[in-house]
């Protein structure tokens, strides 16, 4: 027996869901072949069901359909071709799955807006000049459905970092003292807020 994930949300929630993360989307992209802009559907239906390898994922919007036109959730608000919809799509329960990331990689040769050096790669300095290099650079997303973020350690933390395992040899964040990975949360399910996540701590 498979799973059924039901996500209830409203158009108003989609409108403001990722507003606090806008600054993250405006980071300058690294060099990337053939930059693309995230495509969006014209509407998100009131009720939709998608299949994945473990069951079905359903999304229900109590307020009815959401029109993408003019809705900031679907707008390209930075320079890297991404929108909130890039990482938060209904067929994945408004998050990212490794299978979906791999399908998007395969369909775009790694040029889909999900794949950007700023946080989609194992390191912001990764080589993305060839298909093989992009396959290696974006393995966190395609293999685990994760996004990399660099965070400063909180001054008020109640722990010390005694050891760091860095299998990707990405040392660009040493002064920040922390590098974490996260799965994109189901942004629309947070009552209109997308809190900063420190899930790597």
What does this structure look like?
The chain is globular, with a radius of gyration of 17 Å. The protein starts with a strand and ends in a 19-residue tail after the last strand. The protein has one domain. Strand 3 and strand 4 form a beta hairpin. It is of the alpha+beta class and 201 residues long. The strands form three sheets. The chain has a three-stranded mixed beta sheet with strand order 1-4-3, with no helix packed on it.
Key features?
single chain, 201 residues, alpha+beta, 3-stranded mixed β-sheet, two-stranded antiparallel sheet, 19% helix, disordered C terminus
Strand content: 5-15%
Major β-sheet annotation: 3 strands, mixed
Radius of gyration (CA) equals: 17 Å
Structural class: alpha+beta
- Spans of at least 5 consecutive residues with low confidence: 1-30, 188-201
Shape: globular
Between the first and last Cα atoms, what is the distance in angstroms?
34 Å
The tally of strands reads 7
Report the order of strands and helices.
Answer: EHHEEEEHHHHEE
The number of helical elements comes to: 6
Mean pLDDT across residues: 75
Strand order of the largest sheet: 1-4-3
